Amino acid sequence: MRTRLAIRIHTILEHYFPERRVFLKSDNDTRFIRLRPGTQIIAFAGSALLVAWAIVATAIILMDSIGSGNFREQAKRDQRTYQARLNDLSAQRDTRAEEALAAQNRFNAALKQISSMQSELLSSETRRHELETGIEVIQSTLRDTMKDREIARTQLAELEESLENGGDSIVRAAGNSTPVDFLADALARTAAERDQVIADAQDALLQADEMAQRIEVMKDQNDTIFRQLEEAMTVSVAPLDKMFRQAGMPTDRILETVRRGYSGQGGPMTPLSFTTRGEAASADTLRANRLLNQMDRLNLYRIAAQKAPFANPVKNAFRFTSQFGFRRDPKTGGRRMHSGVDFAAGLGTPLYATADGVVVHSGWQSGYGRLVKIQHEFGIETRYAHMSKLRVKVGQRVSRGQHIGDMGASGRVTGVHLHYEVRVGGKAVNPMIYIKAANDVF
401's torsion region: left (phi>0), alpha (psi -120 to 50) or beta? Predict the structure, then answer.
């Protein structure tokens, strides 16, 4: 069987690939090379493989060339789109900065107006208290005058009765004087006293009416001042309260912490009190106390806002290059958590503290490069990484807006930028929560 199969295969090969001879002729000799069917098949298969490989390689090169061209075009389109988006974000940032500056100016103007209104309110309350005291004195004088008038009338009646009885008692009282002269003099004095009492009473009534009118005018003025102050407080306090709530900060606990920290320097404003006789406070007094409490709350909010990172660490032109959250690692290509936001700008761009605090680290740290850490109130810490130059030292107390370093490319980076982090209780949170919340107010 094997012999027959081999013979058949050999016959088929002989039919398609007959044996060929290649003659090699020289001057002295002639030789030939025998190309058997098996050798021809091997040569044919090798040639076919070589041609197939050349075709496939050429196709791959052409496809790669075409694909790379498409990728370059797509990359250019993405770059143009990204650049347009960056320009749009830059314009929005500039608009927000202008709006923040205008809002800050309005806020400062409102605070000045509130201070002026508060001083006017206190002076008007003092004047009203003085007027009420004056009315009480006038009323007391009027009562005394009315009593004197009644006494004068009683004396006049007694004199008239004595005159009708013949004037004997008057004559005896007058001694050697003429009864008629004595009577006329007494009547004249009585009439003058009566006229004076009546005139004093009328003057007292006129003054009382004038005082009452002035009190009504001052009440209207006080009501206007109260209403303006209440509106100013609503406009000033509500945005600050919203800013802290958007940042996820418990406002009551924050304000209580600030109040405890500043109680040694005066604490909250002392409530108004206009009586020492144990009487119930008036409606105006309660209203004024509510306003003072709101002013105290506004002041506490302003102090707390200085101690929380409601600001931007970069004031020059910049662009965001990476947001908070999971992203593709620029070095390894893997997916990693990015615990801050990146601001890209020129080398040496000034960087600023976003809140009051104390520097707890200023030096080199693996991955971060040149790093500054600032500890703030309420358990908040901010980090400024990849700096080219550090301008603060450990233990130094800094204020919001203070220059703390320059932008660079130290540490694990692909270019010049600032890596900015906000940590609450040691846990990284999105810094844009604070920046956007401040943009909505300032």
Answer: left
Question: Residue 422: beta bridge partners?
Answer: 382, 429
From 370, 347, 352, 377, select the one nearest 435 (Cα to Cα).
352
Bridge partner residues of 369 (DSSP): 365
- Residue 343 vs residue 216, higher pLDDT: 343
Quote the pLDDT of residue 384.
96
pLDDT of residue 181: 61
Token pair recorded at residue 262: 């500043």
Q: Label residues 64-76 b or e (16+ Cβ within 10 Å = b).
A: eeeeeeeeeeeee
Q: Which pair of structure tokens corresponds to residue 36? A: 């058997």
Strands 20-25 and 30-35: antiparallel
Size of the chain, expressed as the number of residues it contains: 442
Strand partners, 383: 373, 421
What is the identity of the amino acid at 103? A
Does pLDDT of 354 surpass 70?
yes
CA nearest neighbour of 350 among 332, 372, 366: 372
**Amino acid code (one letter) for 155:** Q
- Spatial neighbors of 232 by CB under 8 A, at least 6 apart, are 110, 113, 114, 117
**Which residue has tokens 């959250």?**
325
Q: What distance in Å separates the CA atoms of residue 12 and residue 40, rounded to the nearest whole number? A: 13
Residue 273 pLDDT level (bands cut at 50, 70, 90): very low
Asked if 288 and 274 touch (Cβ cutoff 8 Å), the reply is: no
Query: Is the pLDDT confidence value at 400 over 50?
Result: yes
Instruction: Identify each DSSP E strand in 290-379 by its residue range.
Output: 319-322, 325-328, 335-338, 341-344, 350-352, 357-365, 369-375
User: What 3-state class would DSSP assign to 327?
Assistant: strand
Q: What is the pLDDT of residue 112?
A: 76
Backbone φ and ψ of 134, nearest 5°: -65, -40
- Whether residue 431 contacts residue 309, with contact meaning beta carbons closer than 8 Å, is answered with yes
pLDDT in tens, 61-93: 888 777 666 667 777 787 788 788 878 877 887
pLDDT band at 271 (very low <50, low <70, confident <90, very high): very low
What pTM does this model have? 0.45
